[in-house]
Design brief:
The protein is α+β, with helices and mostly antiparallel strands. The chain has 6 helices and 10 strands; from the N terminus they run ααβββββαβββαββαα. One of its GO terms (cellular component) is cytosol. This is Twitching motility protein PilI.
Length: 188
């Protein structure tokens, strides 16, 4: 009898991109599990804020961070799809992350940034309140129990969490969000 993990992966056989993403996520999860304490076991993520939350994006999921560019609205699109921008000759859909997850539109400020997904297949920039730079965490700072205390709208996109100096950082997967049905259905 096949394990449930193997069955889940076999179910994705006709969706090769989703299969690769799922395998990558499983490898990332395995590498972020508590292990040794030397520098090679450190987990690195890009810190950002969304409202009152301090979050981290896995380093490999973000290609770049950009300031708010000029963009054009997309007719008949959901309100969280802010529009399309021309970024260095490529069209980039711009998404209001807070509005997509919680229904509340973001207030754009001088510290607002777009985090650009590191994917050729799914180009997207996600509006966040601010970006604080890369953070390195040791395995003893991992606290995945914090994930279960978060909003149901966010929980499926959280990979884990870390705590440092009594500050919690939730690990948010932009790739999981980009593959979710809620993201794929941008038409109003």
């Amino acid at each position: 009898m096949l394990s449930s993990d193997v069955q889940e992966l076999r179910a994705l056989a006709d969706q090769p991109f989703r299969l690769l993403v799922e395998l990558d996520q499983r490898l990332q999860t395995r590498f972020t599990d508590v292990g040794g304490t030397d520098a090679s076991d450190a987990w690195v993520g890009l810190g950002f804020r969304l409202g009152e939350f301090s979050l981290l994006a896995p380093q490999r999921e973000i290609r770049e961070v950009i300031t708010v560019p000029a963009y054009s609205r997309v007719p008949n699109a959901k309100s969280w799809l802010l529009g399309i921008a021309n970024v260095r000759g490529s069209l980039l859909p711009l998404i209001d992350l807070r509005q997509l997850l919680d229904g509340e539109p973001s207030v754009v400020s001088r510290s607002s940034r777009f985090m650009v997904l590191n994917s050729e297949e799914i180009p997207a920039g996600f509006l966040v309140d601010s970006v604080s730079g890369y953070r390195r965490f040791a395995s003893h700072e991992q606290r995945n129990d914090l994930v279960t205390k978060q909003s149901a709208n966010w929980q499926e996109f959280l990979l884990g969490s870390f705590v440092r100096d009594q500050q919690a950082y939730l690990v948010f997967s932009f790739m999981k969000l980009a593959l979710a049905d809620v993201f794929q259905n941008a038409s109003a």
